[in-house]
Design brief:
GO molecular function, one term: tryptophan-tRNA ligase activity
CATH superfamily of the largest domain: HUPs
CATH architecture of the largest domain: 3-Layer(aba) Sandwich
Number of domains: 2
Structural class: mainly alpha
Order of helices and strands: EHEHHEHHHHHEHEHHHHHH
Shape: elongated
Helix content: 55-70%
EC number: 6.1.1.2
Family: Belongs to the class-I aminoacyl-tRNA synthetase family.
Keywords: Aminoacyl-tRNA synthetase, ATP-binding, Ligase, Nucleotide-binding, Protein biosynthesis
Strand content: 5-15%
Largest sheet: 3 strands, parallel
Number of helices: 15
InterPro entries: aa-tRNA-synth_I_CS, aa-tRNA-synth_Ic, Rossmann-like_a/b/a_fold, Trp-tRNA-ligase, Trp-tRNA_synthetase
CATH class of the largest domain: Alpha Beta
Strand order of the largest sheet: 1-2-3
Length: 348
């Protein structure tokens, strides 16, 4: 096993999209061979905003889709350990040990938690959502991860992990690495509506699994410059979602610069700009479609990867929990009581 460990993943609430790709998946693909790579299917985190029986029943199918999305994006099965969070109960043990190493006011300062509550339609924040970064710390540290590819929204969560690791080590001895954040080149990708970041809960997404027609349909409906009523009116490129996507995904940089110049001077219409974006996105997604078809054609592959990865990960986590309890002195507490009980029994 490599000394360097990468932990990252997603909640099984639906298929992955371009926002996931730029936020984390691109770095996962780039770094997969440099680390012992763990990819969590975070179904316990899903419960913080989606916890109906129907949500839970859909999670198995969503988990399969997530893994297939990552394989399609370029994660190689032999380089990856995919695992289901809820199938490793020892993560909950570590979460319990960490809960007293962070304060409520500290968690309340994590900016994305209120956004998550609002986006899921909750008037008040559930206890589990407030503790989301603590459970995330357990996820990261249970495999003693040294690196976490992270999008802008999750960076504050991982800072809590770093604080918990340092606090634990200070109190009980050097037990956990303090993981490094690996930031994305594109911090946040605005959604197709131009109003918020790309999000499954809002539905303003372009999925990694979309076919060419779906991509074109979503692109042609994208928000652009609201002040531009005709093609001969000079338009704004900065902050324009269509050009944000061109910069992120169009491999023809000369074409992008030419479109920007024409757009600023009122010499190109939104339709042409969008048509060329759709073509660029489909060039970007075509290799993923080929890999998806390849892996989807192997019966049982995804399920086997999840089962084998979960079993491997559970062994790692059991050892980590033992290390943490030993460092804290919890194992010796019970051993002392048991020795006393045995001595008393023998003296009778």
């Amino acid at each position: 096993m490599r000394a360097n460990v990468m932990l990252t993943g997603d909640r099984p609430t639906g298929k992955l999209h371009l926002g996931h790709y730029v936020g984390s998946i691109a770095n996962r693909v780039r770094l997969q061979h440099a680390y012992n790579s763990f990819f969590i299917i975070a179904d316990l985190h899903m419960l913080t905003t989606k916890n109906s029986r129907a949500d839970i029943e859909r999670s198995a199918g969503n988990a399969r889709d997530m893994v297939l999305d990552m394989l399609a994006a370029g994660i190689e099965p032999e380089s990856a350990t995919f695992y289901l969070q809820s199938a490793i109960p020892e993560v909950g043990d570590l979460n319990t040990l960490f809960q007293n190493l962070v304060t409520v006011p500290r968690l309340e300062r994590v900016p994305s938690l209120k956004d998550m509550a609002r986006d899921s339609g909750k008037d008040e924040m559930p206890y589990g959502l407030l503790g989301y970064p603590v459970l995330q710390a357990a996820d990261i540290l249970c495999v003693k991860a040294t690196a976490v590819p992270v999008g802008k929204d999750n960076a504050a969560h991982v800072e809590v992990t770093r604080e918990i690791a340092r606090r634990f080590n200070h109190l009980y001895g050097d037990t956990f690495p303090v993981p490094e954040l690996i930031h994305a080149d594109v911090p946040t990708l605005v959604g197709t509506d131009g109003q918020a970041k790309m999000s499954k809960s809002i539905g303003n997404t372009i999925l990694l699994s979309d076919d060419a027609a779906a991509v074109r349909r979503r692109v042609m409906g994208m928000y652009t410059d609201p002040d531009r009523v005709r093609a001969d009116v000079p338009g704004k490129v900065e902050g324009n979602p269509v050009f944000i996507y061109h910069d992120a995904f169009n491999d023809d940089k000369a074409q992008v610069e030419e479109l920007k110049e024409r757009y600023r001077t009122g010499r190109v219409g939104d339709v042409e700009v969008k048509e060329k974006l759709a073509a660029a996105l489909n060039r970007f997604l075509d290799p993923m479609r080929e890999r998806r078809a390849k892996y989807a054609a192997e019966p049982g592959l995804v399920d086997q990867l999840i089962v084998e990865g979960t079993e491997r990960t559970r062994e790692v986590v059991r050892q980590t929990v033992f290390d943490a309890r030993k460092a804290m002195g919890l194992t010796s507490t019970f051993q002392a009581i048991r020795r006393k009980a045995q001595a008393t029994t023998k003296s009778r």
